[in-house]
Design a protein that fits this description.
CATH topology of the largest domain: Rossmann fold
Shape: elongated
CATH class of the largest domain: Alpha Beta
Structural class: alpha/beta
Radius of gyration: 21 Å
Helix content: 40-55%
Length: 330
């Protein structure tokens, strides 16, 4: 159990109309908080940037809100900066939120910030984990395996080997680092060399210019790979502008409209899609259940819920786009 002083400090941090009912867990470690009044919950879903990708996750949040008659506030750091996300966390904590789900921008740098909030309320991660923190669970993609899945597609695209480049907002994010590690594992032994790894700090203009710069710098470049959702449309635009369609192949992540259009036009060969709708829906449900049931709720084994991935290419892009539209509509 946490100490009496810690519980007192926590109670003072909560809204006066929804005090703590119970808290469990080892001192300094993760614990589950059960609220006294489940009818007055304050829950939040915090993304790592404001890209189109998160609108799909928000649709999942809203679906659960409608089903369970609860409110889950969606918060998006406008520029995808660590300090913005830390500020959002601090504000939510000071406002006495009963549960927070977060996609962590820089897991190694935000452990203290995460633990500070996790000591006061139920905190879970989705999409980008902070496994070294005291978060209760992680919902999302096994990013290493997702990287291996996309890496296997890259091997198919480059059967004789070749040169490729990787683009992302920041490699310090757990999901980016794990995806790249999975790709590297899958292409190992296939004569495929990664000649450039470029970060854009979620700057959309830089995301495109990074690709153009690398295409111009390497005349023998065979393939470009985008690790974050907005990198796909940036890659498609850069390839088109460089006149390299069909000459420089592309394998990316996620399902932004520009990515799906790029697959339709043949500019992008494939994308590895996650299940952001499930990120939103399941995160909202777990936050709700944790607050209502407390430590009576059994956490998943290993503290992880793997939502899986799917490869989308020209053969299935239309069916996927139809299903995606239905999810957004819900």
């Amino acid at each position: 159990m946490v100490g009496t002083a810690a519980l007192m400090n926590f109670s003072c941090g909560k809204s006066s109309d929804n005090p703590v009912a119970s808290s469990s867990g080892a001192a300094g470690g993760p614990h589950i908080v059960k609220v006294a009044d489940p009818s007055n919950l304050k829950l939040a879903f915090v993304t790592n940037n404001a890209s189109e990708f998160w609108k799909i996750a928000a649709a999942g949040v809203h679906k659960y809100e409608n089903e369970a008659n609860v409110q889950v506030d969606v918060k998006m750091p406008p520029n995808g900066k660590t300090e913005e996300q830390d500020g959002i966390l601090e504000n939510l904590s000071s406002q006495g939120y009963d549960g927070i789900a977060i996609s962590v921008i820089a897991p190694n740098d935000q452990i203290d910030a995460i633990n500070k909030v996790a000591a006061k309320t139920n905190l879970i991660c989705f999409d980008s984990d902070c496994a070294k923190s005291n978060r209760l669970l992680y919902i999302g993609t096994n990013n290493f395996q997702a990287g291996r899945t996309l890496g296997a597609e890259i091997v198919k695209l480059l059967p004789s080997g070749g040169k490729m480049a990787v683009f992302v907002g920041t490699l310090s994010a757990d999901n980016a680092a794990q995806r790249l590690a999975g790709i590297e594992d899958a292409i190992n032994g296939h004569n495929i060399e990664i000649v450039a790894k470029k970060e854009d700090a979620t700057d959309r203009a830089k995301a495109r210019s990074n690709v153009e710069d690398v295409i111009n710098a390497y005349s023998d470049l065979n393939l470009v790979c985008g690790l974050w959702s907005y990198n796909g449309p940036a890659i498609a635009a850069a390839i088109e502008a460089s006149g390299k369609k069909g000459k420089v192949l592309a394998a990316v992540f996620d399902e932004e409209q520009g990515t799906l259009d790029g697959i339709r036009s043949g500019t992008i060969n494939c994308t590895c899609v996650q299940k952001p709708f499930q990120f939103g829906y399941l995160s909202s449900k777990w936050l709700h259940d944790l607050a209502v049931q407390g430590d009576a709720l059994k956490l998943p084994e290993g503290g992880v819920i793997d939502t899986g991935v799917q490869i989308i290419d020209a053969s299935n892009v239309e069916d996927f786009a139809k299903k995606l539209a239905e999810m957004k509509g819900s």
